[in-house]
């Protein structure tokens, strides 16, 4: 299924806010493009795993990238 433009836009917005889009960005225990907790990545910091884990995290916690973006805008984190 194609990803709606609004989803891609929200996902990219979060990536830019978190890491300027970098898969190699680190900040303490937060890793990569979406600044995921390193424990979520299980030692696999590949771009593919970051994407997979980010999808799981956002879907389980917020239901959508749009909802995650709205939370970020309200709280400064997600």
UniProtKB/TrEMBL annotation:
<protein>
    <submittedName>
        <fullName>Peptidase M23</fullName>
    </submittedName>
</protein>
């Amino acid at each position: 299924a194609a990803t709606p433009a609004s989803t891609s836009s929200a996902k990219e917005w979060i990536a830019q806010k978190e890491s300027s889009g970098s898969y190699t960005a680190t900040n303490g225990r937060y890793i990569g493009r979406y600044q995921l907790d390193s424990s979520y990545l299980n030692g696999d910091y590949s771009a593919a795993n970051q994407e997979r884990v980010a999808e799981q995290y956002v879907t389980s916690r917020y239901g959508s990238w749009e909802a995650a973006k709205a939370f970020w805008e309200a709280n400064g984190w997600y």
